Amino acid sequence: MATDEYNETIAQCVMELDMIANDTSVPRNIRRSVTEIISILQNDNQELFLRATSGLSILSDVSSDPNLPMHTGTLIWSILGKLETIPPEV
Fold it and tell me: Which domain of life does this protein belong to (predicted)?
């Protein structure tokens, strides 16, 4: 996979995270964390892998929140899977 494809993966994740951030049925603390992840993923001053790893770390904490709606949990697991495809050497 080329760097452009990984950037496309990040863009897809940001789009999906944005849906969660704007979903009023999701608790505020989760939306706040998701907004933080979006900022991290969009930070072009940091390497792609580091952004993905930081996002994964926060997202895995969010995924274990007991107040997470089921439909949001499914979307978060999908995003986690996408971010995990980004290798360190990119």
Answer: Archaea
Task: Please check whether residue 11 is in contact with residue 3, taking contact to mean a CB–CB distance below 8 angstroms.
Answer: no
Q: Is the dihedral of CA 12, 68, 43, 52 positive or negative?
A: negative
Mean of pLDDT values over 24-40: 96
Domain parsing of the chain, residue ranges: 3-83
List pLDDT tens digits, range 61-70: 999 999 999 9
Q: How far apart are CA 74 and CA 23, in angstroms?
A: 14
Instruction: Reply yes or no on domain 3-83 having CATH 2.30.110.10.
Output: no
Residue 7, Cβ density class (10 Å: 0-12 exposed, 13-18 middle, ≥19 buried) = middle
Q: Residue 2 — very low, low, confident or very high, per pLDDT cuts 50/70/90? A: low
For the chain, how many residues are written?
Answer: 90
**Helix ranges (DSSP H) in 1-90:** 3-21, 28-41, 48-63, 70-83
